Amino acid sequence: MKITTRDRILNAAIARFSRHSYEATGLRDIAADVGIDVAYVHRSFGSKERLFAAAVEASLQPERFFAGAKADLATDLTNHVLARDPVRDADEIAPLDIVVHSLSSPEAASVLREVVVRNFITPLANKLEMSSQTPASLIASLLLGVGILRSVLGVAPLCDADRAALQQMLAEQVASLCAAKPQEPQVAATPASIGVEAEA
Known about the structure:
Blueprint: H1 5-19, H2 27-34, H3 38-45, H4 48-60, H5 73-82, H6 97-100, H7 106-127, H8 134-152, H9 156-160, H10 163-178, H11 191-199
């Protein structure tokens, strides 16, 4: 498959955003990495925010999480999170690096929030056929937390644990959330409604 200039820009953006903060990464830097004029970056992506969103989506590849059957969802999701070896080369980029380096930026956090909701939480809720996105949000929180602690921070109990045992424990928690039945919010009784009930 032919690699286009747009692909090269996107790859350079992933590398930059994965190693530097959102504020420290400029479109001119990315253009220089590719060897093109910054105007071409603007024409291809429109803005830094849109390029960042595209870089996050390309890095995380959220669409791959939902390719399998609904019954296999818990296993598939946990396999994706635990697939990478937590020990990696210093110059190797992991999918969550771009998230971690951008969390301190309100502007980047806003883009990250939109990407996660649009590309993971909403499709997951739809896959589970749930009207509420709360279980899907909890699953996202669990998987993201495990991914960061294991692959970014290198927390020993998660890195040193037997992968099969860790996968089973995590899959059980995800499966429990997949089967959750969100409760409808309780409406507080008002004096008027109490009066109506009393009259009935």
